[in-house]
Amino acid sequence: MDSESWACSSVEKDLDRVVTKLEQLRDNASADVGDIAMLMSDLVNALGNAEQMVTTLNSSTQVNANAPSVDDPMGDGVSMQVETEPTAPQRPTDRHMEVIRGAILKCNERVQKLSTEHRDLHGSISKIGKAIDRNFSADFTSTMRVDVLQDEENLMLLNKAIAKHYCRQGMDTVARTLIKECKMTEDQAQDVFDSEREFADIYSIWMKIQKRELTEALKWTKRYSPQLMERHSLIEFRLHRMRFMQLVSYGVESQNEAVVYARTNFKKFALRYEHEIANLMASFIYLPAGLENSPYKHFLGQEMWTELSFIFLKDACQLLGISKNSALSVVVNAGCTALPALLNIKQVMQSRQVLGMWNGCDELPIEIDLQPEFRFHSIFACPILRQQTSEDNPPKKLTCGHVISNDALHKLSNGHILKCPYCPVEQNAEEAVRIYF
């Protein structure tokens, strides 16, 4: 286990202990609160019984004082006003007082227990922060080149990267403000907007798809339809499919419009998507009840629109040869991925007193394996010619499923006949399909 995994494991153990304590506290607190509620209920009942007894005693005393005596000969004919001392209030019985004192005492004990356990939990939570500080370095300055941004050219490159990032997001006003404050030249500022204009248009369409507006996206795919068909892209058909289902979802009054739209736009996809188009046309059966009560209800969910927008963004960027991520976001994300390895090697070099190896060259002292999305060149090497593929020599997938480079394909083919170098399948060399990694 490397140091990073060990550090994560150590912090995870402390976190598991806190979570276990929290769950125990929750269970104990629920039981204690239930007990307190029962004790309070008993206390209320005891106080109610005591009050009822006092009221009964006072009422009976007053009745006995006002009732005429049977032996009094003047009871029926004479009304006498007798002044008596007010009845002294009756105290609850000893049994009631015992119940009340017991309930209050137990409530105090339960509340004190909850307070103590809660205080102990705070101590355990604070230990997590200490464990993180102990196992992970918070000082990243050791991996920085503090002299890099002292160069005016490098600083301007950073400002251009930030400005381009804002342009890609459609935040032109923020980009212009940054350009003005960093005193960027007009040529550099024009390069910022020119280089990101294509992606800004794509980004604008991407945002509209997420808002369920397909007009601009359909116009874009119509303009680049031949290129998309050549690359076997799914986006054009999926946009038309979503627009068709959008018309169907409007109800019976839009049925004719949906039929006309399907006849107009599904013709070119009839061979490739024949079965799926037939399923789409079956959605008219559910118009009276509404699509929300049909097997087609998933077309109404936002998930489908979000997925469609990202497919459009990916295919459009690939077609135009631009990155779907800005240079700034790629640098930041790649740096965060590489940072733990850099901290580890820095610590090892310090312990062995070989910091001189970390020189000022534009390369890292170790090779860092980044994630696939940070690789911008072909990672396929032809198994026949032992060379990496490129735009001029792209990889080709044979009908049997094996992949070789385009140069190897031409060298191995005899006219139009090609025998796969890995299996005995003979095939037409022209049926090989280019693969995009």
UniProtKB/TrEMBL annotation:
Would you name any one GO CC term?
cytoplasm
- Tell me if Metal-binding is a UniProt keyword of this record: yes
Write out the entry's keywords from A to Z: Cytoplasm, Metal-binding, Zinc, Zinc-finger
Q: Where is the RING-Gid-type domain?
A: 382-423
Q: Name one GO biological process term.
A: positive regulation of proteasomal ubiquitin-dependent protein catabolic process
Query: InterPro entries in the record, alphabetically?
Result: CRA_dom, CTLH/CRA, CTLH_C, Fyv10_fam, LisH, ZF_RING_GID
Zinc finger spans (RING-Gid-type) are 382-423
Query: What Gene Ontology terms describe what this protein does at the molecular function level?
Result: ubiquitin protein ligase activity; zinc ion binding
Ranges of residues in domain CTLH: 198-255
Compartments in which it is found: Cytoplasm
* PANTHER family named in the record: GH10162P, MACROPHAGE ERYTHROBLAST ATTACHER-RELATED
Instruction: Write the protein's name.
Output: GL10188
